[in-house]
Each structure stands twice: as structure tokens, then as C-alpha cells.
Amino acid sequence: MLFITAHNNRRVFINFNSTIMKKINVIFSFLVVFAFFTISCEGEKKPTTKKTETATQGKGQSAVKPAEGEDPNVLQVAASLEDFSTLVTAVKAAGVEDALVNVGPLTVFAPVNVAFDKLDSGTVEFLLKPENKSQLAFILTNHVAPANYPIKQLKKEAAKGRKLYMASGKYLTVESTEDGVFVGGVKILKTVQVSNGWIHVIDTILLPAED
Questions:
Q1: Residue 174 falls within a domain, yes or no?
Q2: 143 and 94 in one domain?
Q3: Which residue, 98, 120, 167, 164, is CA-closest to 139?
Q4: Do residues 90 and 136 touch, judged by C-beta distance below 8 A?
Q5: Kindly report the CA angle at 93 between 171 and 144, in degrees rounded to 5?
Q6: Which of 107, 137, 152, 175 lies in disulfide reach of 94, CB 3.0 to 4.6 Å?
Q7: In a domain, 87, yes or no
Q8: Kind and range of the H or E element at 3?
Q9: Do both 45 and 95 map to the same domain?
Q10: Domain that holds residue 14
Q11: What is the distance of C-alpha 56 from the center of its chain?
Q12: Does residue 173 sit in helix, strand or coil?
């Protein structure tokens, strides 16, 4: 009886081990398939990430487009309007695009095409030449104030007799009369708020004052 009992117990033990091994094999097969699937998915994601990084390399802030529902910046507004086509051309020639898309706040006194037409014949063509890039940049930055100047604030500055500091390092006088607000003797025709500040439209170039 003892032998039979031991023999039967052995048989039960062997059958039990066979069942466990079958389950282990099934689980192991599942883990192999799962691991292969995970690695394959990760491999498919990497090229997309790399492509996105490559597409954004070497571009300045001026190349960044506004997100959906976000207000455009100074340069984006100017580039969208034909009246500022000469200004946009000049900005690109001078290499100061990124200066107009900084977070700000910025206040830009933006001359329309007519303002450039008022300059002496050949002046614009002269300034657009590569060798005159620094001179053009100096003139353009004389139209940018690194501060927040809506019309209301400009009137306050005028009442206090203050001058506006420009990115060129020069100063412009600001006056407020019954006829409107004037900066550097030039009347502001229209004002547009943008994501990084203000655009005040003018029809005359603000040439830096000589020292």
C-alpha cells in the first residue's frame, strides 16, 4: 500500500509539473510577443520626433507662426498688409526681423510705403544694398521703442514733457495736441494692438537726429 501510495503520489506530482510548464510556456510566448510589439512601436515614433526637430532647426523667432487663436506680432501684421511691403523688405534686408517678434512689449512706429516714397530719389535703393545694412538697421530701430506705449500712455508722456527712448539709442519727442499725437514731429495715423505690443502707423520716416 505504501508503494502504491508513493507511486500514485509521484504520478500526480509529474502531471502537476506538466500542467505548470504548459502555462509557463504560454506566458513566456505572450511576453515575447508583447516585448516585440512594444519595441516596434517605439521604433516607429523615433523618426517622427527626429523629423520635427530637424524641421525647426536653424530658424529664428520670426519663422514661428502664431498658434490658432493667438494674436499676430508686429512683423506678422506688417507682412500681411500691402501698405507695409517696403517696410517688410527693408526689415529683411537689414536682418532685424527677430527684433520685431520679441515677446516685448514693443512699440513700433511703422511707416507705410508712402513714407519711403517721400525720401530723396534713390535713397531706398541705396539703403537696401548689402554694404549699407548697418545704416538701414540703425534707421529702422529708430522706429522701435522697447516699451509699452499705447496712445493713452503717449499722451501722458507728452504731458510730462518726456522723450521716448528708441532702440537706436536716440530719443524722440512726443506731443499731444487737438490734431492728434505726434512722435518726432510725425502724426500717428492709426494704432493697432498686437501680441507683443503696439503698432502706430505713420506716413513719414523717423530719421535719427544727428548728435
A1: yes
A2: yes
A3: 167
A4: yes
A5: 20
A6: 137
A7: yes
A8: helix 2-56
A9: no
A10: 1-55
A11: 12
A12: strand
Question: Which of 55, 82, 100 lies at the terminal end of a domain, its last residue?
Answer: 55
DSSP 35: H
What is the predicted pLDDT for the residue at 94?
A: 95
Q: Are 186 and 112 in contact (CB under 8 A)?
A: no
Tally of domains within the chain: 2
Angstrom distance (rounded) from CA 170 to CA 210: 9
Cell numbers representing residue 49 in the block: 520626433
Same domain as 50, residue 91: no
> Chunked in runs of 10, what are the mean pLDDT values of the chain (211 residues)?
41 42 47 44 42 35 50 90 95 90 89 96 95 96 95 97 95 96 97 94 90 58
Read off the pTM: 0.68
CATH code for position 111: 2.30.180.10
Strand-pairing partners, residue 197, are 106, 194
DSSP state at residue 197: E
Q: Give the per-residue pLDDT at 151.
A: 97
